[in-house]
Amino acid sequence: MARSLSKSKGRREKGPFLALPRAVVDSPQYARLSAYGVKLLIDLYAQYRGNNNGDLSAAYKLMQPRGWRSKGTLHKALQELRQAGWVVVSRQGGRHRCSLYALTYLAIDECKGKDLDISPTAAPLGTWKQPAHGNSCTRYADQCTRYADQSEADAA
User: Fold this and answer.
1) Distance between terminal CA atoms of the chain?
2) Nearest Cα to Cα of residue 86 among 123, 24, 128
3) Of 88 and 145, more confident
4) pTM value?
């Protein structure tokens, strides 16, 4: 039986939404991320507008309204994402300039006026798919090591 138009109105939120690719969410690399790593990945992705990958910021002042309460936790989550290959630095910060980042499961866009250190790409870098060198996990290191050992054994 078809649902009437009057009953379905107002049930869905209007506005932009985030669509994480299933290849990302179903990957063992995503499963290895800590809760803070996943949160930061989503918070960075929330800044993406379809043409600004490379112009994503993890500045504490910007992340504080999104629920980040500690600079140390934010820094650890950012290091985890960088080490695991989920984000790359697109512009190194310095005096009066924040560092900018790009998500590696999306193509890097040309961001005019941002003076990026990396060039735009036609395809995603995909570094998150590469096997991690060293331990990219911060909280569950023993589980990640066991999972990596099991994956290597399965591949052989």
Assistant:
1) 53
2) 128
3) 88
4) 0.77
